[in-house]
Amino acid sequence: MAALFRGSRNLLRRWNKHVDLAFVSTRSMASKTPVGFIGLGNMGTPMARNLLKNGYPVIATDVFPESCKELQDLGAQVMDTPADVAEKADRIITMLPSSPNVLEVYTGPNGILKKVKKGTLLIDSSTIDPAVSKEMAIAAEKMGAVFMDAPVSGGVGAASMAKLTFMVGGVEEEYHAAQELLTCMGANVVYCGQVGTGQAAKICNNMLLAIGMIGTAETMNLGIRLGLDPKLLAKILNMSSGRCWSSDTYNPVPGVMEGVPSGNNYQGGFGTTLMAKDLGLAQSTATNTKTPIPLGSLAHQIFRVMCSRGYANKDFSSVFQFLREEEGQ
């Protein structure tokens, strides 16, 4: 009788194990359903590539069809419009340059919300006005979809290596569903609160980044004019209290570091136009909240002037070159 009991218990244990494995397998397969990706620029392309690397089928589109070629060659399905993507995917990530682009992609004639399915999770990684994120969340909710803002920090290098930081705003109950996808593209995923708080965190970060880059460029320029070797100065700064991301990871002086835009005539990276746009968002929100940002305002003006002086399409670290050229005027 005891032997029969043991045999039944072992059989039950094997059955439970089989059921558990089947459940895990089913859940894993469900999690690998297609993901839509809209916006395949300098940031969007490596982000979507990392989704493919993690086994997610990607359905993509971009306003410039030629931007889709790399992903298509890697196996992504390319569609003509955001609405077409929404028809085929119930999880969609957007990575777009500005608020008007987000409005067009979501609410335009061929926008996501024209064909979005009920229950779809919409994750916007663009850096835009928090008010626009809230507007999109309301519009999505009316269609039975969920919108979350999840802007990123880290730049093109971090996007390529899946080391971005995501700042997420939205319904907390949906955060884990978003996190599953975002961890394929980033090393840090932080829940900030309701819709718009992700954008708030990103705007604050980029204002500090701009101020820090200008300070690093000014410091390096002064040191060079005082006769210091730029590599030596950077080394000293990076072992001293002046150390910052702009000095030790993204130095703006050509020849000091490899693999950064300053070593490639300021090509690639984070464009001056985009930095000026983000600082404009900081200025606007500071005005609305009556918050004094004297250095942020000055940084905004500097990057706006750079845009009018031929630096618009160069990386924002070209502020070093801009300051050098100002010497001769």
Explained architecture:
With 329 residues, this protein is an alpha/beta fold. The chain has two domains: 35-194, Rossmann fold (3-Layer(aba) Sandwich); 201-324, N-(1-d-carboxylethyl)-l-norvaline Dehydrogenase, domain 2. The protein contains 15 helices and nine strands. It has helices spanning 2-31, 44-53, 69-73, 82-88, 99-107, 112-115, 130-142, 155-160, 175-182, 197-225, 230-237, 245-248, 272-288, 294-311, 319-327; strands at 35-38, 58-61, 77-78, 91-94, 121-124, 146-149, 152-153, 164-169, 186-193. It has a six-stranded parallel β-sheet, sandwiched between helices. Helix 2 links the parallel strand 1 and strand 2 (58-61). Helix 10 packs across helix 13 (272-288), helix 10 packs parallel to helix 15 and helix 13 runs antiparallel to helix 14 (294-311). The N and C termini lie far apart (100 Å). The model is unreliable at 1-9 and 11-30 (pLDDT under 50).
Largest sheet data = 6 strands, parallel
Q: In CATH terms, what is the fold-level topology of the largest domain? A: Rossmann fold
Strand sequence of the main sheet, in spatial order?
A: 3-2-1-4-5-6
In percent, how much strand structure appears in the residues?
Answer: 5-15%
Q: Roughly what percent helix?
A: 40-55%
- Any idea what the shape is? globular
CATH architecture assignment of the largest domain: 3-Layer(aba) Sandwich
Encode the helix/strand succession as letters. Answer: HEHEHEHEHHEHEEHEHEHHHHHH
Helical run tally: 15
Low-confidence blocks of residues: 1-9, 11-30
Count of all domains? 2
Q: What is the level 1 CATH name of the largest domain?
A: Alpha Beta
**First-residue to last-residue Cα separation:** 100 Å
Mean pLDDT value:
91
* Protein structure class: alpha/beta
How many individual β-strands?
9
The CATH superfamily of the largest domain is: NAD(P)-binding Rossmann-like Domain
State Rg: 24 Å
GO cellular component, one term: mitochondrion
Pfam family, one: NAD_binding_2
Keywords: Branched-chain amino acid catabolism, Mitochondrion, NAD, Oxidoreductase, Transit peptide
Domain 3-hydroxyisobutyrate dehydrogenase-like NAD-binding: 196-322
